[in-house]
Amino acid sequence: MLKHSIFLRIYATVVGMVILVTLFAYFSTQVINYHRAQQYRESLTDGISYVITQGVERQTTTQQKKDWISDASDLLDLPLHLIDANQIELSSAEQKRIDNQQAVVRYDAQAMVANIYMGLTTDSKHYLLLTVNKIGERQMKALPIFILDYLIYYPGQEQQHLKTIQQHFSYPIDMRSVLDLGLDSEQLGRLRQDQSILLYRDSATMRGTTISIVSPLLNNPSEVLVIGPVPMFNWMPFELAAGITLLSLFLLSIGVYFAIFPLQRKVKQTIAALNQIKSGDLSARLNADGYDEMSSLSSSYNDMANHIERLIEAQRELMRAVSHELRTPVARIRFGMEMLADEDDYEFRQSQVEMIDKDIEALNTLIDEIMTYAKLEQGAPSLDIETIEIASVLSQVLTETRALKTGKDVILNAPSVDVVAEAERRYLHRVVQNLVGNAVRHCHSQVCISGGIQEDGLAFICVEDDGEGIAEADRERVFEAFARLDDSRTRASGGYGLGLSIVSRIAFWFGGTVTVDQSPSLKGARFTMTWPAVRPTVHSKNSK
To answer: Which CATH number fits domain 382-544: 3.40.390.10, 3.20.20.70, 3.30.1380.10, 3.30.565.10?
Structure first.
């Protein structure tokens, strides 16, 4: 069945793992990028928040501080307020950032607004709150104004104090010669007009797109303040993409391994069992639980091993039985030949020749029985299946039996001529012939033959006799090759113990069974063979 197919199971597992790994990669990327974006926001704001807080703390009076904050808010075009520290609860990590003169950024993704909290070293009761709901050219060009406002208190020491505040910035801040920047005439003209300019650089390297802010210095037109380059946030940098990809492939390989591992284990078990058989140990069997192809293979292997073991055992029994059965007629032939050599009487010699001929005929019969049994025992014979009138086969055997003039009353209860079943006529005739012959040998006076189709769709033939019957304990053993329930009676009747074994094997290859019980009417043995009247799968020469 498709639902039990190994391919479909592995395919479904791989597809499921791909879906799970994809979801894992997606959510992992989201979580990682959430923390990366938070770190990026904090790294951008740490430096400027330090400069802003320094500007506020330089004001001596409260009113001056408020005025400075108001001017800064207008410059940034963003709301900047002085709030009470009691209005906000900070986590331990956020409090640590405040203590280290770093900014605390709380970003609302739905409103797309970031609240930046900045601590004041001289006023622990208040925080500066900058609400950022937009970042444009005006906000970026305001950054160098705050830095220059900070440096204005250190005339002649600008480079030194730039290095001091550099530790608060995650991107470079430096004073450079305007000639080193490679600016065009328009950009130089804007600098001479005391305007800041933005430089965008798009690199194919992992650094990606960057922005630099260039602002003129009032007292030194040959130099400019350069902030940046500031890298733009990259939602999928190479390191993240490579890491997520490798991790996803690793998880996918683990999932595929565990999907294939049961198959690998079963294959190893099968190889080990085959090696045991190769070494001569026929007892190895496989666990055939399940419904997939490997379970079917294990079941087929077990059937094969059972069949091989049974064939070898049957071969051994056959060799022992054949050697035993052949000794008697061969010994009689040898004795008869010796008698012929020592006897001159013609009539006596003629009788010895006739006895030898009977023994040779017995040998031929025995060899024929052995060959038939061996053919049916070793493997599936080639069956020429056809639709047969059951009454025709029964009538043929009746005619042949009466021609032998056995002195027994053989009765036929034949079905109508339109009762047919699928079988091979030669083997079906052999079954009826063996059963009738066996019944004639062991009956007292009467044998009854019948056949037909049962209500369950099984065809049957039945042979009953009025003999002594077969004990219930021996009814299974009677179908074994060379089995002798009553040795003296069997020998006297001329049997070899193969007839019923042949019947049993033919029933097996017909897909049916043969049973023995007591005849309800004649009180002797009743042998019944049943098989499907219509075969579901026909193994015939015509179907090849």
So the answer is: 3.30.565.10
